[in-house]
Design goal:
Length: about 60
């Protein structure tokens, strides 16, 4: 029997998009680190490129 830390994720053949959603501390970053860096799209990197800050949050509601 495998422990939680030894779980295996089977990936589909060909291109795919995996969106990780969960509470803070639920392990999203840990799972993401299992993928090569050039496979990941990280919102913080795009936020930095657009605004020069990692902490800027945008809202469509005014």
């Amino acid at each position: 029997m495998r422990s939680r830390s030894e779980s295996v994720l089977t990936l589909p053949d060909g291109p795919f998009l995996l969106a990780m959603i969960g509470d803070a501390g639920s392990g999203k970053s840990r799972v993401a680190r299992a993928f090569p860096a050039d496979w990941r799209l990280e919102l913080d990197n795009y936020r930095w490129q657009a605004t020069g800050s990692f902490s800027v949050k945008f809202s469509g509601l005014s």
